[in-house]
Amino acid sequence: MALKIVKGSIDRMFDKNLQDLVRGIRNHKEDEAKYISTCIDEIKQELKQDNIAVKANAVCKLTYLQMLGYDVSWAAFNIVEVMSSSKFTYKVSCSHQPIRGERTVDAVLITTIINSVSLPLVTQDLSSPNQYDTGVALTGLSCFVTPDLARDLASDIMTLMSHTKPYIRKKAVLIMYKVFLKYPESLRPAFPRLKEKLEDPDPGVQSAAVNVICELARRNPKNYLSLAPLFFKLMTSSTNNWVLIKIIKLFGALTPLEPRLGKKLIEPLTNLIHRALDLLYGMVSKKNLMEIVKKLMLHVDKAEGTTYRDELLTKIIDICSQSNYQYITNFEWYISILVELTRLEGTRHGHLIASQMLDVAIRVKAIRVFAVAQMATLLDNGHLLTGNMQRNGICEVLYAAAWICGEFSEHLEDPMQTLEAMLRPKVATLPGHIQAVYVQNAAKLFATVLRKQEGTTDSLAAQETSQLLIDRLPLFVQSANLEVQERASCILQLVKYIQKLQQKEVEVAEEVTALFAGELNPVAPKAQKKVPVPDGLDLDAWINEPPSESESEDEKPKAIFTKEEPKHTRPRHTEVDEKELARRREARKQEQANNPFYIKTSPSSQKVYQDQPGVEHIPVVQIDLSVPLKVPGMPMSDQYLKLEEERRQKERSERKKKEKKKKREKHGRGRRADSGPESEEDITPAHHVDIVTEEMPENALPSDDDDKDPNDPHKALDIDLDKYV
Amino acid sequence: MIKAILIFNNHGKPRLSKFYEHYSEDTEQQIIRETFHLVSKRDENVCNFLEGGMLIGGSDNKLIYRHYATLYFVFCVDSSESELGILDLIQVFVETLDKCFENVCELDLIFHVDKVHHILSEMVMGGMVLETNMNEIITHVDAQNKMEKSEAGIAGAPARAVSAVKNMNLPEIPKNINIGDISIKVPNLPSFK
């Protein structure tokens, strides 16, 4: 008897374990099927043995064979038997085995076996002190849970959700999803506890809970709307990326049902998008820059009229101009991107685009021809851009365009056309600094045009050009902007002089060009520091004798002013006699008449001034305007804003609920969101955030060929959870 | 939800297959073959995400794969999972395997597929992601390994000895073992296989 046992154990030593099986299969490549059938016979023998270790070994091998495609459902009972073992090792080997039966008769049989055998076993394991025993039971359960098992074990698993060990809690929460699928009635009692788990201190448990609820909510989103505030809080406080992803997908499913949610989500989502955009800096390389920017441009197109669009614009430019434009391979493409960006309405970054254009045109010599051509087109279509008069609005681009055309005018195809475009009367509506640039560069263009025209011995054309300038410049001379006025006057005089010379048939082109000769190169930011100090110059030495330290000098100036001032002013005052006054007045009047800046007053007030010298006696005239000041060229959007404000004023006075107003002020982004609820949808453009999500419709097509229709559990899970929250 | 996790080599031989939904064995094999066809055609520098084949759920499901040396790791997921997240999960899985097996190679997966299953069950359970932190996963796996070893105890010793012998590769032992001055010549033993 004893010998038998010893013999038996020695026999068992030479049983094939998993490695042997695998090795054997590899060595029998030619007759694999035969070898495997031999092995299966051996396995069947082993399963008949009493020794549980042997059986476990057999089950292990069966798992491997199943992966190769061999049907092992006949061993279901044995697998369950092994599971019943008290030893962890053996249990583990079964936990990966999805036990199932395809054929209906077998299915019933096997499920009965499983239910009757596994239930007590699993229950035993579930309450085991060893957390890994429980863990293994749960893992196994996830593979083969049946409706009956689910029903019976639901309460046990719910208890486990509050286990002391987070490892168990995590697994229990996750398995509840499978339990819900098989036994929908368990959702009602389990839900409050599941909700609690969302705030579990352990992050693993929390993310498991988020996982389960997100899965459930995908199918029946409306039941989970009440959880939205809780998820919002989680989203803003969590740093776990998996959790964030799941919650955002969940919101994607919920937002169509609750539009206000979308508005509330904008802020945190924009933060996330900013973080993502910041990543782009590091991501960019020569190859992908163009594609990335193309994608960003698509986004820019989609994001109409939001600050997001401006952010994108800044980002695009930042990325492109990184490290001295090191990533740009094709500057023509970059210039065309910049020109496309100018078509954006309402941007506040016109100066940024303008400075980029200037930068590229100056630094990249090769691109100047292309750039100049593009800028000329821009100038021709300048009237399209003059609608936006804001500081830093898109009309800033015209500043750059004019300068580039003027400086590099030798590349222009049709300088005459551009000159003409620059001097159109509409230009006078542009902001002052832009007009100034226009005028100056018109002069540069004039030089180029002259050079061209004089070469062709067509003096009439040259004279016509001069005449054009003389005709158009006076408009600028009358401009209210100082700089424009000065430049225009200078250039006008110059052109008049040139015209005189032209009439005498003198070639002037050379000299005019000489006015604008020389390249303007970009200056390095540290250039100033690097200017070498000439020899013999000591910057720290005193230029003059340092003031002496004597105190008398300090006092003296004070004394002069404090003592002598009263002496000086009054005598001066009394010295002046009537004649002096009259003379001075005449001189002043002359000056004022000649001074274009002096606003001439009406004779009555002048008289008053004459009679009573001294500032106090000039009466203050109230300007009484019945008609409101109309600023020409004011953009349309300002009018809308005014209308909006007026309407809001009315509503505020009507509505007396102050809390609502305060709330809206907190939540709103910008002034638009502050308006009343009824009108919000009408006026404001959709502040919608594009969350891409693939929604599963209620009646999704079955995706697996399980016996039951998988949609049934989800339909059954469609209950109102608000009572249980 | 994750529908399936597959590992197969460059010739399409499955090294690990875990399905989280019920299919028959034939369907499973077909799915493995189909997935292999889809994935092996891909160039090295194209996107790691593609739509699932007809059997695995068509366009609703996506295949997210990574190619490491001779192995393809493929996760079949539906739309509730983030593609980049799963890609990261594959990376974590492979790194965990590397830690547990010490410079893992395909042979390790071939001969220790049960261990791979254990590791995977610490990461994904019932089709949902359980744990993504590598250290956590390794802690639990190690703890469970220790449990197994301590359970086996003395009784497991003969079995371990036998498998050690089987794993020994005699032809590779050096012919000459040099310990200082003494030189022992190892006789040329016949192959045990």
TrEMBL record, chain A:
KW Acetylation (keyword) present: yes
SUPFAM superfamilies the UniProt entry points to: ARM repeat (SSF48371)
InterPro entries in the cross-refs: AP3_complex_dsu, AP3D_dom_metazoa, ARM-like, ARM-type_fold, Clathrin/coatomer_adapt-like_N
Keywords: Acetylation, Coiled coil, Cytoplasm, Golgi apparatus, Membrane, Phosphoprotein, Protein transport, Repeat, Transport
Biased composition (Acidic residues): 692-709
Membrane topology: Peripheral membrane protein
Biased composition range(s): Basic residues: 657-670
GO CC aspect terms: AP-3 adaptor complex; axon cytoplasm; endosome membrane; Golgi membrane; presynaptic endosome; terminal bouton
Subcellular locations according to the entry: Cytoplasm; Golgi apparatus membrane
A Pfam family of this chain: Adaptin_N
Coiled coil: none
Record's compositionally biased regions (Basic and acidic residues): 555-591, 641-656, 710-725
Region (Disordered): 538-611, 630-725
GO biological process, one term: anterograde synaptic vesicle transport
AP-3 complex subunit delta domain mapped to chain residues: 576-722
SMART domains, per database record: BLVR
Family in the record: Belongs to the adaptor complexes large subunit family.
Function statement: Part of the AP-3 complex, an adaptor-related complex which is not clathrin-associated. The complex is associated with the Golgi region as well as more peripheral structures. It facilitates the budding of vesicles from the Golgi membrane and may be directly involved in trafficking to lysosomes. Involved in process of CD8+ T-cell and NK cell degranulation. In concert with the BLOC-1 complex, AP-3 is required to target cargos into vesicles assembled at cell bodies for delivery into neurites and nerve terminals.
Protein name: AP-3 complex subunit delta-1
Gene field: AP3D1
UniProtKB/TrEMBL annotation, chain B:
Signal peptide: none
A Pfam short name: Clat_adaptor_s
Keywords: Cytoplasmic vesicle, Golgi apparatus, Membrane, Protein transport, Transport
Keyword Cell wall biogenesis/degradation in record: no
Any Gene Ontology CC annotation: cytoplasmic vesicle membrane
Localization per Swiss-Prot or TrEMBL: Cytoplasmic vesicle membrane; Golgi apparatus
Biological process according to GO: Golgi to vacuole transport; intracellular protein transport
Highest taxon in the source lineage: Eukaryota
InterPro entries hit by this protein: AP_complex_ssu, AP_mu_sigma_su, APS3, Clathrin_sm-chain_CS, Longin-like_dom_sf
Membrane topology: Peripheral membrane protein
Domain AP complex mu/sigma subunit: 1-147
Segments crossing the lipid bilayer: none
The keyword Lipoprotein is assigned to this record: no
PANTHER family per record: ADAPTOR COMPLEXES SMALL SUBUNIT FAMILY
Function: Part of the AP-3 complex, an adaptor-related complex which is not clathrin-associated. The complex is associated with the Golgi region as well as more peripheral structures. It facilitates the budding of vesicles from the Golgi membrane and may be directly involved in trafficking to lysosomes. In concert with the BLOC-1 complex, AP-3 is required to target cargos into vesicles assembled at cell bodies for delivery into neurites and nerve terminals.
Recorded family membership: Belongs to the adaptor complexes small subunit family.
Entry protein name: AP complex mu/sigma subunit domain-containing protein
Gene field: AP3S1
